[in-house]
Structures are given as structure tokens and as C-alpha cells.
Design goal:
Radius of gyration: 41 Å
Distance between the termini: 141 Å
Largest sheet: 2 strands, antiparallel
Strand order of the largest sheet: 1-2
Oligomer: single chain
Shape: rod-shaped
Mean pLDDT: 75
Strand content: under 5%
Number of helices: 3
Structural class: mainly alpha
Low-confidence stretches: none
Order of helices and strands: HHEEH
Length: 140
């Protein structure tokens, strides 16, 4: 009886293995019916590589999910790219603010910024009050 059960078990296991492994329609072909092939869950170009990102790019971004959450390497890639673009924008903003501050200081100060208060364009620095622009001893 033991040998009969052992042989029956081997035959059943072999039949199941043959059904699973050889279930195709022939050599090199897939089985008809059954499940369709799974679609790849990785997208190749989901962020534009040729221009800076904008709000609509981030709103349309959908990261592929893995068994437990999101794929870490793809999330890291997105965060690295966003960090680099934000750093570039911050540097550009700082550069523009510095040039704007310089332009405003030049516009507000004018060329006589360090002259005497209340002095006109013909005044010379260090002239005594009430003295004419030509100064003493100079020809008029």
C-alpha cells in the first residue's frame, strides 16, 4: 500500500509539473487564453529632459508603485532633479537681486552721491560758504 501511494504521488506531481511547464501551444509559442503579459510599470520619459520643470510637469507626475510603496531609486532621481533645478533658480534669483540692488543704488545716488549736501553742479568740494564758484584769485 505504501508503494502504491508513493507511485501515485510521483505521477500526480509529474503531471502537474508537465501541465505548468509545457502548457504552451508548441515550442517557442505562448499559451492561448490565460493572463496577458504584465505591462511595464516603469516609465521612460516622465520628466522632460530638455527643459526646466514647471508646475504642470509636477502635477502630471505619477511615480510607479512597488510592492511596498514607491520605487526608491525613481523617487530619488526625481528629488535629485528637483533639488538641482531649485538650486539653479535660487542662484539665479540671488544674482538678479544683487544686480537690481546695484542698479537701484546707482539710480538713487547719481554721480554726485558723495558731494556736499545742497551743492549744485558748479560747486567744488571744500569751498567756503558764500564763495563764488570760481574761488578767490581766479579770473572771471
Amino acid at each position: 500500500m505504501f508503494w502504491f501511494l508513493l507511485i501515485a504521488l510521483v505521477v500526480v506531481v509529474a503531471a502537474v509539473a508537465l501541465a505548468v511547464a509545457g502548457g504552451g501551444d508548441g515550442p517557442g509559442r505562448t499559451a492561448t487564453g490565460g493572463l496577458a503579459d504584465a505591462l511595464p510599470d516603469r516609465t521612460e520619459a516622465w520628466l522632460p529632459p530638455d527643459r526646466p520643470l514647471n508646475r504642470s510637469d509636477l502635477e502630471a507626475l505619477r511615480l510607479p508603485q512597488a510592492v511596498r510603496g514607491y520605487r526608491m531609486e525613481e523617487v530619488d532621481d526625481v528629488l535629485d532633479r528637483l533639488g538641482a533645478e531649485l538650486a539653479e533658480r535660487d542662484a539665479r534669483i540671488a544674482e538678479l537681486e544683487a544686480s537690481l540692488a546695484g542698479a537701484q543704488a546707482t539710480a538713487l545716488g547719481g554721480p554726485d552721491m558723495f558731494g556736499e549736501p545742497g551743492g549744485g553742479p558748479g560747486d567744488r568740494p571744500g569751498a567756503a560758504p558764500g564763495e563764488e564758484p570760481g574761488g578767490p584769485g581766479e579770473a572771471r
